[in-house]
Amino acid sequence: MTEKRYAAITAWFRERPGCLRTMVFLNRWLPRCLYAAYPVMLLILALLRDARIWKAILVPAAVFAVVTVIRKAVNAPRPYETLDIQPLIPKNKKGESFPSRHVASAFVLAEAFWYINPFLGLPVGIMALLIALIRPLAGIHFPRDVVAGALLSLALGVPAFLFLPF
Questions:
Q1: CA–CA separation, 136 vs 120, rounded Å?
Q2: What is the mean pLDDT of residues 56-66?
Q3: What is the spatial distance between Cα 52 and Cα 65, in angstroms, rounded to a whole number?
Q4: CA 38 – CA 32 distance, rounded (Å)
Q5: Does residue 1 carry a pLDDT above 80?
Q6: In angstroms, rounded to a whole number, what is the distance separating the alpha carbons of residues 22 and 67?
Q7: Coil, strand, or helix at residue 48?
Q8: Residue 115: which of 61, 160, 150 has the closest Cα?
Q9: What is the reported pLDDT for 34?
Q10: pLDDT in tens, 29-38
Q11: DSSP code for 99
């Protein structure tokens, strides 16, 4: 991503304040909805004494931990730190941009919901994709950050949900 490319992409949103407000709203509320729905799913699994609860807890926790360790080790700067841009959604956070933990978390939660019930996994997967789209558009992450977050989540989560014996 370059300053010129980012300016060209974001000009569309800057010229449409309603679309920009929608992006800001989705950036704030999509993760909150996911992070609220996840404990509800776990509570239901616990009440039903469903053994799948262990994968639904441990796999997302492991993905979250791996992504957190990687981003602290890499400590990559965010777009607004390295480029001369005005992000659509201003942030003050420095570094730890690669990989995107929001995207990795959203994707692994989508995988968890899919594992429990594919009917529920589909809308959560769509929410994860929207989060992955919004983060670079907002200027919070580079595209490589969200792609890496999604790929790490898929590479670690899918095999764990499919093949772990518990």
A1: 26
A2: 98
A3: 20
A4: 10
A5: no
A6: 28
A7: coil
A8: 160
A9: 96
A10: 999 999 999 9
A11: S
